[in-house]
Specification:
With about 160 residues, the protein is of the alpha+beta class. About 35% of the residues lie in helices and about 35% in strands. It contains six helices and seven strands. A seven-stranded mixed sheet has the order 1-2-3-4-5-7-6.
Length: about 160
Amino acid sequence: MRNKIDLQQNTREKISKVAGIRPMTMEDIPIIVAIEEVSFPIPWTAESFISELKDNYLARYYCLELDGKVIGYMGLWIVMGEAHITNVAIWPGCRGEGWGEYLIRRVMHSMFSAGVMRLTLEVRVSNTNAQQLYTKLGFKPAGVRKKYYSDNQEDAIIMWASL
């Protein structure tokens, strides 16, 4: 893996040489679940991801690879020209280096190319780092879902972005 200094130089040219985005496969599920478990208080299970990949025709899931290793993922449901981001996570050792932004930007570009016009997501009120990233990517707050998160009854901010 490249050293931290190289990773922090996240120009498009630099990132595109070392990272790639691809559709998630069943073989990715063990690492995706590992990322999920260290990222969320109530992580999705392997069965949840299997169901999403096999049974949910609305679902699109992507893996972020760095030097051939999955370090992050993103999932969406596409309905009538809009996409709902279900989850985004980056392996803890790779956070703070621009990979989440890179992943979301690339997937947003792909969604635009596929005819998606708007994206939405929910984010914890306490997750100000994610809110800042989403705002940087063009998302705007549009409402609150009261007691949305079942682990602690925290509210979620609903955010939308137009492509």
